[in-house]
Amino acid sequence: MKLFIRTLFTLHFSLFTFLSSFAQKRPNILVIFSDDHTQQSISAYGSKLMQTPNIDRIAREGAIMKNTFVTNSICAPSRAVLLTGKYSHINGLRDNSPRRRFDGSQQQLQKLLGNVGYQTAWIGKWHLQTLPQGFDYWTVLPDQGHYFQPDFIHMKNDTVRHQGYVTNLISDFSLGWLDKRDTSRPFFMVVGEKATHRNWMPAIEDLEAFDKVEFPMPANFYDMYENRRAAAENDMTVDKTMLIGDDLKIGVDYKKPGMFGRLSPDEKQAYKAYYDKAEAEYNKVKDDPKALVKWKYQRYMRDYLSTARALDRNIGRILKYLDSTGLAKNTIVIYSSDQGFYLGEHGWFDKRFMYEESLRTPFVMKAPGMIKPGTVVNDMVVNIDFAPTILEMAKVPIPSDIQGKSFLNLAKRKPNPSWRKGMYYHYYEYPEPHHVAPHFGIRTNQYKLIRFYGPFDSWELFDMKKDASEMNNLYGKKGFEQITLMLKKQLLELALEYKDDEAVKILGEREKR
Ligand code: SGN
Ligand code: CA
């Protein structure tokens, strides 16, 4: 009996050491996931607006996915896609309204990684209404969080206010956790950035960064939305929707609690001095609508890009930490954002529409030994693919109910002829806050077909090769009947494949009429 127990014990022990040594071989995974940080402002994606040397470094040392799209261009739903690898109608989080709450009891990436021995953490912006589940450690901003002196919730319902600028604090907490983690296990950490979400409050040191630059307005800034009924209904223009106070920071009451009231006395002084100068310019143009909108656009760009500077700088800080601790050689680093954003295209800020600027999102990753430096992937990847790609890199089997596909092989430069040729999109939140009608659609290499439903029931068709800025709706025009039929068929196939019953029903009803 004794011998039996001893043998059993030895067996168990060797199995344990075997498993933990196996676990040791798995790479660490660090995902930096920002908010509203768009490809048009990232130099690795060809932006001339500013330099993002640290994001570019990840791309240079690894892979850049040039055509990365989201399933639903909005904050919390996009995070839910990252965690589940499933569309909004499957993971349950379709929009940001407080009545929608993410069901954290469902299968999620961190739980699957935790099951094989990963130590898991989410630090920073979370925004999923319910508190994180399935992480060993988390520290999150309540709701949208604040840029200055933000509150954080630390593992319980304890809200603590911290001194400092949010992008710096998120890095401090992330590096702090890396310092104290259990080094016998691989880690999976998400650094959830608040930048560059509205109302784009730059760090003090970045306030004047773009003052000498005059930004060219996008060619379609003065879009009149001809032939695009749903787009015409928007309430997200730089001209009309952007707020002079909270967004453009003119005439702000620094005593009022909230975004500006949280600045320290020194920060208030610096902000006031800086935005008083902006106010003097504003006073010169405020009665001239044409000059005013140009001024608003310049101010918007300055604030957005200055806020992005701290983001890129902090990514650099995290990369340096990995270098100096030797972790870099066994750590996969991914940089991505929850969606893209309009920097004046169609006259807009914000996201939501299936048009290119907010449909796209950045995705770069370096994985030493796994992905060759300088890799450029042009195949279409979608944010449902992020979770399965991470699972494959961690050598974890991908559950069959995950809707995305791992693109690791594409990043390893192994072409896959059966890879998707069209991506599927579905947006829901309406009417507030920006009056973007619900819609779904398909984007192929050359075309985009969008079906708006609800109050602005309509179709849009674009030829992306000839009309990259999506100004010319070809739906119903002569000569496009065949391609429209084909795209409708593909759209229905995708809606069926992803089990989007609501879209299938709408498409079916249309057919009957
Ligand atoms: C949230 C949204 C923004 C939106 C404002 C509107 N972000 O911050 O897209 O501009 O609300 O606020 S999201 O993370 O929820 O998607 S409002 O007060 O001007 O209506
Ligand atoms: Ca966002």
Report on this model:
The chain is an alpha/beta fold and 513 residues long. The protein folds into 3 domains: 25-201 and 304-415, Alkaline Phosphatase, subunit A; 208-219 and 231-300, no CATH class; 424-510, Arylsulfatase, C-terminal domain (2-Layer Sandwich). Helix content is 34%, strand content 16%. It contains 14 helices and 14 strands. The strands form 2 sheets. It has a 10-stranded mixed beta sheet with strand order 6-5-4-3-7-1-8-9-2-10, sandwiched between helices. A hairpin with a 4-residue loop joins strand 5 and strand 6 (159-161). It is globular, with a radius of gyration of 24 Å. The termini are far apart. The structure holds 2-deoxy-6-O-sulfo-2-(sulfoamino)-alpha-D-glucopyranose and calcium ion. Calcium ion (CA) binds next to loops.
Summary of the model, kept short:
The chain is of the alpha/beta class and 513 residues long. It has 14 helices and 14 strands.
